[in-house]
Amino acid sequence: MTEARWHLTYSQETVAEPIVWALGHELGLVTNIRRADVRDHIAWVILDVRGEREQLETARAWLEDRGLHVSVLTED
Predict the structure, then answer these.
(1) 66 and 20 Cβ atoms separated by less than 8 Å
(2) Do residues 59 and 68 lie in contact, with contact meaning Cβ atoms separated by under 8 Å?
(3) What is the pLDDT of residues 34-75, one digit of tens each?
(4) In angstroms, what is the C-alpha Rg of the chain?
């Protein structure tokens, strides 16, 4: 299992989408929101994620394909 902490930045187009839910239910990651600021036009989330390394790589690409900016804060 690999654990990471990501900083996700949402755009106005993605702010209302259930992104964290999808990471857990569709991509099989364990997620934990550490901190967040959600507004009508923009949002950011500090998110702990846990899964196999390949799942995390797939998830990062999936997020970026949807227009989110992903910064890796920590990863083991």
Answers:
(1) no
(2) no
(3) 999 999 999 999 999 999 999 999 999 999 999 999 999 999
(4) 11
